[in-house]
Amino acid sequence: MSVLRGNIARVTPAENEDEEVLESWTNPYIAEYERRSDFLKATNAYHVNLKLRSLNLASYAFSRNAQEMVGHVGRYPGFGQFTSAVSDPYSDELARLLHNTLASASSLISGQRVVLRHIWPKIGRTLSEFESGEYTNKRVEVFETDEAEFIVELRNYSQHYFLPRLEPRDTFSFDSHSTSRDLQFLLEVKPLYDWSGLAPKVKPYLEAAGESIALLPILERYAQSVREFYTWFWAKAEEKLKDERAELEARTLELRAWGEEVFLAPDWFRKPGGEPPPDWNGRRWMRREKAKIRLNRWQLGYTSRRGITVDSEGVAEVGHDAWTPIYLRA
Questions:
Q1: Which of 10, 16, 20, 160 has its CA at 20 to 30 Å from residue 72's CA atom?
Q2: Residues paired with residue 140 on neighbouring β-strands, in sequence order
Q3: Which of 284, 227, 296, 311 minimizes the C-alpha distance to 260?
Q4: What pLDDT is attached to residue 178?
């Protein structure tokens, strides 16, 4: 005998010993639960939620990588502690963290574009009104600056050529009252020109920078821009999908509450080799637990979006919704 998605199959001998008969029975409650679960997983809101979850993961990776890089910078050897033995491993780790930060920023921006095209899809080759208007205006405002374009090109350099290497420059100044320290991490400009893929549009910026660039302040401003754009875009996506996501959430809670009744079983039953307590009264327990579940189901109610149309004669007709009330009881 086998059980699969609420179906029970059993093979029994037929009258003819050389033949077998396959008997099957489908549990209507489990089958209905799975049908409705598949229905919810096919909705646009469900697929958008999956993409938003992935986008949130990209945001987390970017934030963590940036935090780790800042933390590593803060551990730079202080005056009197610096040795050549510390220098190379420290710089190597800084290069790795810089690469991770740049790459995760790229993943976050690419993920935003995927979500954008899902929520506001193209019509043929034509961009949506939102993408061609408000989205593009915001993107240009945040990212089409000399610094942002340089960071993007540095990311491309790290992905297609070599990891950029930062060299620390630690200078101190003294007066009669105090000592001040200026710690910078410089990116040498010349190696960037060795890459044949360097975009011409960033060359004027590099020429104006001179022999080296203090990268970390620029990277901090770029990271802030990425976060600003991400926060803005997330709010726009939530605003656009507010009704669909609320409907999905309500129906998910409705199905989950009914599922508690469908799959209702005592704790001891779920344990391997579990035995009921000595004073176990299964019917009493079942009545009590089902009463709690059905009260919760009644409080949740039923969510439908069928709409009402009115014809030219003023006759109103309620539309159809594939999500029907769950009347079936286990």
A1: 160
A2: none
A3: 296
A4: 64
